[in-house]
Amino acid sequence: MATTLLSLLSTTLLSTYGLTLSYKNITLLQKYQAKSEKAAEWSFSAARRLKTTQTTQAAGTVSLLLSLVTSAALLVLQPPCDSTSSRFVAPLALAAVVFAARVHMARFWNTKEQVRVPFMTDYNDAARGSEKVVGVLSVLAFSWGWEVVEFGMAGKGVWVEMLVSGVGWVGRGLLGMLCVIQA
């Protein structure tokens, strides 16, 4: 129970961090909105990039918001431990949603797709920030998936539960370190 509370608290904080990054990135990208729309009128490629920019930012933001609301609700409401919908279905659905958003964003916001543009520091900062959001989504997808594993191991004995919980925290830590190193 204590590990679940700690896990949900860390998920809430990480979701909040991801949302602040998303807000900053979207604000930076909006500075180029008018120019991008003008370019999109004349270029199919520019129109496609503008649409992809908007959909990837929206997907990341919505999945982070869902993660925040769900983890906060599970923290505050504290449903019964044997509640299958709150301990299994919600984390499983969120793991899928967050992972899908992560994949969608990672296909567009990466150093291979995004060329750093000289004299457009705000755009470049938004691109780097979006890559950080992809890292946050990676850790969140793992965290929600691990919640499902912890639920499946509940009641199997204290040593099994401690082992599963420990592996989960080590996994979160390693994934977080990889995301920081890549950023």
Can you walk me through this structure?
This protein is mostly helical and 183 residues long. The protein has one domain. It is 85% helix and 0% strand. The model has no long low-confidence stretch (mean pLDDT 80).
Q: What are the salient characteristics of this protein?
A:
183 residues, mainly alpha, 0% strand, transmembrane, membrane, transmembrane helix
Short description:
The chain contains 6 helices and no strands.
Ordered list of secondary-structure elements with their pairings:
Layout: H1 2-30, H2 33-42, H3 44-77, H4 84-108, H5 121-153, H6 158-182
Transmembrane segments: 58-77, 89-109
Keywords: Membrane, Transmembrane, Transmembrane helix
Please bin the fraction of helical residues: over 70%
Total of domains: 1
Class based on secondary structure composition and strand pairing: mainly alpha
Distance between the termini: 33 Å
Shape: elongated
Using the CA coordinates, give the radius of gyration: 19 Å
**Which band does the percent of strand residues land in?**
under 5%
Biggest sheet, in brief?
none
